[in-house]
Amino acid sequence: HDLFVILDEIYDLAVYDPMEQEPFESAIKIFDQDSSLDKNKLIWMSGLSKNFSLPGLRTAVMYTPNKEVKESTKRFLMYQGPNATTEFLTRELLEDKAWVKEVFIPESLGRLKEARDKAIDFLENLKVLTKKDIRWIIPRAGFFILVDFSEFLKSKTFECEDKLQSEFIENKVLVVPGRQLAMNIPGWFRVIFSGHQWSVVDEGLQRIQKTLLSFH
Hints:
By secondary structure, the chain is α+β, with helices and mostly antiparallel strands. The protein is built from six helices and seven strands. The strands form two sheets. The chain has a four-stranded antiparallel sheet, with helices on one face. The protein has a three-stranded mixed sheet with strand order 1-2-3, covered by helices on one side.
């Protein structure tokens, strides 16, 4: 249909548990290998906020073989481009390719997988403790897990989801309700399991448990 393919592979370097039968492959590689695909229809994007845990470094990258798209992009870079300090820090980080590839990425993936497994252990124990049918989607990349707490809702409505979210905030733990993620089923929440220290993440998980045990 002569459509452009726009892909944001913001988690492309954070795949710590790849599927053996269907490993992750970048769209750039797929377009390079498949001659039936028009490379000029590909617009690929990524950034540092997820892969490098640098959400404050407001910069990203766009790749496309399409010259017209690249020329069009240059027109708004005067107003939307990163500042010089951000450009300098980004260049210094990415120029050390050996450190990024051999040190940072393996260490990051190992820590993310370990934290993911600890979070799932917590949910398994919480399921036994509360005797509720808590469900979750096991993540293979990134730093959060989607958890279904709908069994704790008085009725499965977004109003009750909002009440549970208010209780989480009251107990000083911040999770993202599903409605803010455009989910159409009430009761799902996004729980982040990564952090500088596991003790901080664990404290947050304990506050989630406290909230659910007291929620009516």
